[in-house]
Amino acid sequence: MNTAVAGYGLGLAVPINATTRQIIADLTAHGRVRRAWLGVAGVPVPLPPEIAARTGQRRGLRVVEVVPGSPAGQAGIYLGDVILSAGGRPVRDGQGLQRLMLGPAIGTRPPVTVLCMGAFVDVVAVPTDLGR
What we know:
By secondary structure, the chain is of the alpha+beta class. The chain has helices at about 20-30, 50-55, 70-75, 95-100; strands spanning about 1-5, 10-15, 35, 40-45, 60-65, 80-85, 90, 110-115, 120-125, 130. A hairpin with a 2-residue loop joins β6 (about 80-85) and β7.
């Protein structure tokens, strides 16, 4: 989106990406930004070398909190698990998971791959609307 300031010869460019487009679409369609919620909190952790080589990513998100009764809790995500991917996209940190939790994710069934006690486990967590 380009904006010109009249009379000063100054131009501003505001970058727009897929996340920004989704926010604009939510505001237009629903009057608010809808966020999906899984009910987990985590910290980024380095992956063991053999896991990093197998997955092609160096970090994952270690689960440090699971809200009881949350979509993550119901799906079988536990404290200490390391989230590797959600919906087929790698998760390296909390922000990476949050970027996946926009309005379109609400009610979907994205597979979540976690490293649980050294084993790869695929679970299905159905994100709910955070605002409801």
